[in-house]
């Protein structure tokens, strides 16, 4: 069984739910510094958040000079995944809006499809395949080699959380090199998360 992430334009109240684009969230009344790229020192673009058993996992990726800041790598500082506890949250905005937000927000639903692989699940999905935004849990379907990262806290292999398509609207799609796939991992012990993409 594969759990597909399906675009759902009718869902609202997305502050503590999986969604893509729009504004990120932070813990109420707590300061939070918008993530900056290690290479260019500019604020990263917010991609979306995935709800898991340890909180909301927020994904940021540098889009100030695409292709120049190693934004595809889990460890080079061109992207960042942050875990927020999913209680008492508020939306927040960056200091600079240039290249930091994607205007369209995609709400989603998780749909179980009988299949052995991600590709088979898409084939078996009865709806519009453009609405498939990825999958959660299970196993990653790598485009290239297995790049499962290690946790910086415990050095163990991290848990696979989600693989993500760029999005249904090319004007506001996430930039994974053009038809690439993003991969999110976490460590429940260290409460850390990492992100990478392949194309």
Task: Describe the fold and architecture.
With 199 residues, this protein is mainly beta. The chain has one domain. 4% of the residues lie in helices and 34% in strands. The protein has 1 helix and 12 strands; from the N terminus they run ββββββββαββββ. The chain has a 10-stranded antiparallel beta sheet, with helices on one face. The chain has a two-stranded antiparallel sheet with strand order 3-7. The radius of gyration is 16 Å and the shape is globular. The model has no long low-confidence stretch (mean pLDDT 91).
Summary, kept brief:
By secondary structure, this protein is mainly β. Helices cover 4% and strands 34% of the residues.
Class computed from helices, strands and strand pairing: mainly beta
Mean pLDDT: 91
| Series of H and E elements | EEEEEEEEHEEEE
Strand content of the residues, in percent?
A: 25-35%
Main sheet: strands, sense, barrel:
10 strands, antiparallel
Q: Distance N terminus to C terminus?
A: 25 Å
Number of domains: 1
């Amino acid at each position: 069984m594969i759990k597909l992430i399906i675009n759902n334009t009718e869902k609202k109240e997305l502050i503590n739910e999986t969604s893509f684009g729009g504004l990120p969230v932070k813990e109420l009344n707590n300061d939070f510094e918008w993530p900056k790229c290690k290479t260019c020192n500019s604020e990263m673009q917010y991609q979306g958040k995935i709800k898991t058993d340890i909180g909301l996992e927020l994904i940021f990726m540098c889009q100030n000079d695409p292709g120049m800041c190693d934004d595809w790598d889990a460890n080079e500082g061109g992207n960042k995944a942050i875990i927020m506890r999913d209680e008492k949250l508020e939306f927040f905005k960056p200091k600079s809006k240039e290249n930091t937000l994607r205007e369209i927000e995609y709400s989603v639903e998780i749909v179980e499809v009988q299949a052995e692989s991600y590709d088979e699940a898409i084939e078996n999905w009865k709806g519009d395949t453009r609405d498939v935004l990825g999958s959660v849990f299970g196993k990653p379907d790598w485009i290239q080699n297995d790049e499962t990262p290690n946790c910086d806290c415990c050095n163990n292999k991290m848990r696979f959380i989600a693989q993500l398509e760029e999005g249904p609207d090319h004007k506001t799609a996430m930039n994974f090199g053009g038809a690439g796939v993003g991969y999110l991992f976490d460590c429940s012990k260290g409460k850390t998360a990492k992100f990478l993409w392949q194309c």
